[in-house]
Amino acid sequence: MTAKVVLVPGLGLGPESYAPTLRYLEAPYEVMTLPGYGARANQDDDLHTEALAERLTERLTGQQESAVLVGHSASCQIVVAAALNHPQLVKALVLVAPSGDVRASAWPTLASRWMRSAIWDPPRHVPTLTRQYFRTSFSSMARAMDAARHYDLAAAIPGLKVPTVVLRSKHDRLCPPRWNQALGDLAHGEAWTLPTGSHLPGLTNGRELAAFIQRYAGVYKNG
Hints:
Blueprint: E1 5-8, H1 19-22, E2 29-31, E3 34-35, E4 38-39, H2 49-60, E5 67-72, H3 75-85, E6 90-96, H4 107-118, H5 126-136, H6 138-148, H7 153-156, E7 164-169, H8 177-186, E8 190-194, H9 201-204, H10 206-217
Parallel strand pairs: 1-2, 1-5, 3-4, 5-6, 6-7, 7-8
């Protein structure tokens, strides 16, 4: 049976960040935005990873079957926390360009890595990224990132009990090769580097990303 796919956008992004991937996805899906991750945060919203994971799982509760959770960048931490706290709700995890390395979480390091990744992004993506960032708001993004950068993903991920694949693109500096592979090993799962793109595989590598998601959701095609 094909599992439902639940995709959480990365920091500041919205459903549009997965649009090229969803065009190829042959499984039921839903994009769930959260404060700082596609939705503007209220002043009293708790943006720590565990709190956002609880928001996510509240929305998953009541579904008939467990779901494949897809996270991107900092939202990978949210879906991991959700799977750790409520494994019965999660069939598998697809972690796309995960951040979460506390050894590289200082603001200057994050900014440098982001800039070295962004130079590889096609200029045509600037308008849609700008719209998404303004909708979420830069203050929400700053608060969410300040909370996310203290969550130790490498310490959390060995506790996972669900199948996990970790993906990055070739020119991603926020998720370098060693970090990607380390997370795959710690999760006792798979780690892959896609041959093109940077930190936005949902936009630049839609077909390839959809293929991984479908495999974990149980979509099998002949040929």
